[in-house]
């Protein structure tokens, strides 16, 4: 690290073969063997002490939970950009002359207003009898025809276009049925989807999410009004829509023999305003393969402050994803120091901390739609999201020497092998592939920023420590981070990024799994 001046001086003198001097910064090497020889020395500049120093700043109460578009997120952006600049990375956003480290853009901040579903003389109230997710095409009261469909395979354009599709949803189907059903409804141009829950399931979901739904939500600009509404409803509301009783509805879920009400009107009003935010980018230009890009990411936003709580109200997000953010800062500094010493990467490396992940992967989605460097030139994405804690399973054995690896084999068998090789050679973590299973109900592969690269055919590797009691709670504090474990994962990410940037051939894309 640049704070360890004596060590840095010794390092620069020692890098290379035996007692030979390393190359000067003016004569960068493209010798793969020499670059490989240099890698461990720069990996060692990534330390638990430096990760802790950075994290105790950006995950402090002063940063107010880094909620997207708010004061704390802006403070974190300034901190990260300052670190990139002082470490010698360049700001690659040439369109932003004021601050080339910022990729600025507007999101949309929306708040729910009045809402109801009227069926005949009955009126069911939003936030009481049903609650919404996402956007709303019902910003003024509109009549809509309803239809029942048991599974996503029935949701075709012919059957669902312009209609309100109702279906039953059990607790066990939350992660499995919803994704496919909502995607099918959007493809079919349905007006909305009503997920009818059981009474207990609805009560539990309302208790968990009602306060959050009443808070402003963030989305891409002009997003939501053209997509189907998503509505979670009580059995009473669902039965009224389907023209039956809750009891008969429960007995009839496998068929489409309901006769939905003919006089359904829906209002889900929503007010919106622009919300400015920014991804923070630092760039280390490559040498002989500089047109090809390796992207290293973490999200630096979290979920802010909840004034309704008693006691601690600030969601500091130390592990989620302060731990990944400070790892990216440390990797960026290591690569920048290597370049200054003449060991710069052959391929260029973009270090990017993204905004809006907690709101739906919005910052990485914006970058994928407005890339600073062409996506076809992007070799791979190394994504770091939560690397400083133990999850429930590993807490039982007090084993922090592990990391879940997700997605490395989905698009490139070579990336998977590189990760295995770098770990065995340098780090010796236990690589856990539990959440890499296609059938994993948690679907973590789809839930962090790497996915916006993967869905564009770019190989990714995602490092993740799993879920713990403080996940999305005010208790996610920097003093609970196991910095020695975070150091090991960050060093693994460094070695993988180093290998991707310096190997002779670009890794192959040899799988269509997304």
TrEMBL record:
Question: Which InterPro entries does this UniProt record tie to the protein?
Answer: M28_fam, Peptidase_M28
Q: Which UniProt keywords apply?
A: Signal
Does the record bear Signal in its keywords? yes
SUPFAM superfamilies assigned to the protein according to its UniProt record, in alphabetical order: Zn-dependent exopeptidases
**Segment forming the signal sequence:** 1-20
Has keyword Ligase?
no
- The residue ranges of the Peptidase M28 domain are 279-496
Q: What is this protein called?
A: M28 family peptidase
Q: To which species is this protein native?
A: Pontibacter anaerobius
């Amino acid at each position: 690290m640049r704070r360890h001046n004596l060590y840095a001086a010794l390092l620069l003198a020692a890098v290379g073969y035996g007692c030979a001097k390393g190359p000067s910064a003016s004569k960068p090497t493209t010798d793969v063997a020499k670059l490989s020889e240099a890698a461990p020395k720069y990996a060692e500049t990534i330390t638990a002490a430096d990760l802790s120093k950075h994290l105790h700043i950006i995950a402090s109460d002063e940063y107010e939970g880094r909620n997207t578009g708010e004061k704390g997120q802006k403070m974190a952006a300034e901190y990260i950009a300052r670190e990139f600049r002082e470490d010698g990375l360049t700001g690659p956003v040439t369109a932003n002359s004021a601050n080339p480290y910022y990729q600025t853009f507007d999101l949309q901040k929306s708040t729910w207003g009045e809402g109801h579903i009227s069926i005949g003389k009955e009126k069911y109230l939003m936030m009481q009898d049903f609650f919404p997710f996402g956007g709303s095409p019902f910003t003024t009261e509109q009549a809509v025809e309803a239809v029942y469909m048991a599974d996503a395979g029935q949701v075709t354009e012919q059957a669902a276009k312009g209609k309100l599709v109702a279906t039953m949803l059990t607790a066990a189907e939350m992660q499995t049925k919803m994704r496919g059903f909502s995607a099918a409804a959007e493809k079919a141009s349905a007006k909305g989807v009503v997920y009818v829950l059981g009474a207990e399931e609805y009560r539990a979901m309302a208790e968990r999410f009602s306060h959050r739904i009443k808070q402003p939500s963030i989305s891409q600009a002009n997003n939501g009004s053209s997509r189907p509404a998503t509505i979670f409803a009580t059995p009473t509301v669902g039965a009224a829509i389907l023209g039956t009783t809750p009891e008969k509805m429960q007995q009839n879920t496998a068929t489409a023999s309901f006769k939905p009400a003919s006089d359904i009107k829906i209002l889900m009003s929503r007010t919106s305003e622009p919300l400015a935010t920014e991804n923070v980018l630092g760039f280390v230009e490559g040498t002989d393969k500089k047109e090809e890009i390796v992207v290293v990411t973490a999200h630096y936003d979290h979920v802010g402050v909840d004034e309704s709580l008693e006691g601690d109200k600030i969601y500091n997000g130390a592990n989620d994803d302060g731990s990944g953010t400070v790892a990216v800062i440390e990797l960026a500094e290591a690569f920048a120091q290597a370049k200054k010493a003449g060991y710069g990467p052959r391929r260029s490396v973009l270090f990017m901390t993204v905004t809006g992940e907690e709101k739906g992967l919005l910052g990485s989605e914006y970058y994928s739609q407005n890339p600073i460097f062409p996506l076809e030139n992007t070799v791979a994405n190394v994504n770091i999201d939560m690397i400083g804690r133990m999850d429930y399973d590993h807490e039982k054995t007090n084993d922090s020497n592990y990391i879940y690896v997700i997605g490395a084999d989905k698009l490139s068998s070579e990336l998977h092998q590189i990760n295995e090789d770098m770990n065995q050679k340098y780090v010796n973590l236990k690589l856990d592939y539990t959440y890499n299973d296609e059938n994993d109900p948690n679907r973590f592969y789809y839930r962090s920023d790497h996915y916006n690269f993967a869905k564009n055919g770019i190989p990714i590797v995602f490092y993740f420590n799993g879920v713990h009691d403080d996940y999305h709670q005010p208790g996610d504090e920097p003093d609970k981070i196991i910095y020695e474990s975070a150091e090991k994962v960050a060093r693994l990410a460094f070695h993988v990024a180093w290998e991707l940037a310096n190997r002779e051939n670009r890794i192959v894309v040899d799988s269509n799994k997304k």
